[in-house]
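TL;DR need structure tokens for one chain.
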Amino acid sequence: MKPNLITKITLCGLLLNGIYTHAQQTNLEVNTSKTITKIQPTMYGVFFEDINFAADGGLYAEMVKNRSFEFETPLMGWTQPNSDTHSFNKQSGIATTIKVLENKTNPNFCRVLINDDKGFEMINEGFRGMGIKKEAQYNLSLKAANPSGNIKKIIIQFIGKDKKILGETSITPTAKDWQNYTAAFTATQTEAKAQLKITFQGTGTIDLDMISLFPEDTWNHRKNGLRKDIVQLLYDMKPGFLRFPGGCIVEGRTLAQRYQWKKTVGDVDKRETLINRWNTEFAHKPAPDYFQTFGLGFYEYFQLSEDIGAAPLPILSCGMACQFNTGELVPLAELDPYVQDALDLIEFANGDTTTPWGKVRADMGHPKPFNLKHIGVGNEQWGPQYIERFKVFEKAIKDKYPTMIIVSGAGPFPDGDYFDYGMQELKKLNAEIVDEHYYKNPKWFRDNVTRYDNYDRKGPKVFAGEYAAQSVAIASPDNKNNWECAFSEAAFMTGLERNAEVVYLTSYAPLMAHAEAWQWTPDMIWFNNLEAYGSANYQVQKLFANNKGTDLLAITKDGKPVIGQNDLFASVVKDATTKEVIIKLVNTAATAQEVTIDLKGSKLQSKGTVITLTSPNLDDENSFANPKKISPTESPFLLKGSKAQTSLPAYSVTVLKLKMK
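>> reply
TL;DR here they are.
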């Protein structure tokens, strides 16, 4: 992401070079037996950043906001509707927070004084409400200390917008000192905007902390785990990698606010809460209640990578805060702790259980290594300061872990002085993989389909780490996940695939957004408290990732690559595992096109499959009301001898799958 970077982008006009009265006829040729290069298993992956409430309030299924009272305003998210703080004698009770200075990671707890056990209540609003489903079970846990023993029971209820009770349970706090308590209860109806109400039996004082609520039905049924519907969308993509935790989250507005992975592992209640760097970044969508509890931390990211079959790709701070904000630098002489964090992370991921950080991983429940092969140094840094810091990291990592593949960055833009300088210097260093980012209008993606055709095959490989077509302008709140953006990205992706010799990893960004708590648009997956759906862009990404193949083949028109002639774009791969030839065709014209593909080389079965993704209007979008409006349709396909003949609808992405004999 590039905060506060607003550039005017002119919307593209008509997609047609001309208006055709008849469907355009195009003849193409494929040699199915001639492999150009191998497709990397990491070709299509996903990029996760905690922007748009993607972690707390999103993927991480915790339903209580500010569960441990550690936000900047310690009672943010909590209300005491029956407490009259202006007239103590009339109070039903009052909740205040106490700070224990010797507790460095979770210093605050809530002290509740109950004067009237029929009047005092605490209510947690959740993340723009709490989504509950009828007959689903929810698991509550909290810490309590009941020193006087006068509080006999803690009653926990779901309440709806009309304060109607939608589920109830209770806890009996028996111990004078801190103790963990758990309870389960069932929602009596479905409600997107439920809240959690806590009341008490008895009068006196009780201390509370880590008030936490999760659905029972999480991904893989993990206790206090991830939202099942969102992970399912990721799993269905079959991503080759998962990049985490960002994004500018890695850098922080200041170095103190950078992402520090060591603070995100170990016991969840000992992880230090941090303000989210996106909370007030954008004037159009401030979110002062946006914090990171790190319940979704580096262990959980590695675990998620494993769950969805993706290679983990962590990105770490290189000692530079976001250059769009403070640009704060760690002096080179003081860089050692940052470098050590990188070395320790590799040990955490791959070390055996006798190593200090391998033991931490094992103690968390994963003795087996995570098989980390890639690590990123810096996010969108640029200039000489980045290059000199990258050199330090590269030497230290390669000295200790010579086979570790290091991802470097070429800055926030796909061209210009920052990019040119970064690429020039990284080439001198024989950098392995360079991360490139581009947020441009849809026409740019169609016009730049040949971007990598002339890249040096012996130079650094490419990670297209963040890209998305912007329907209005970069960072505009009015950007839409419309069909023109999606099929323009598909056209560009045929260029990425045709250049698989140099392009090793690609990912759309950002990955997801809460419908009521987003900061940046467009986004690939949208969710609210009850539902999640994939945008048209998601459908394109999924279609390519599910059909990436293992070997790149050539598809030509008159001996030349298909790179926009007649508004047509194409790539073709072979999958050695499934024994298929897979042809991807993108028609960006406003009219249908008739295509004949002459398939030479390997013999193919006559029966195949055609998958079509299309919509008639450039502005069409998927939505909560119609989440499948733009989604693929599949039908049988018949070869005629060695020729595949098909009609490509206007504004369409088509995949032909043909079995080899």
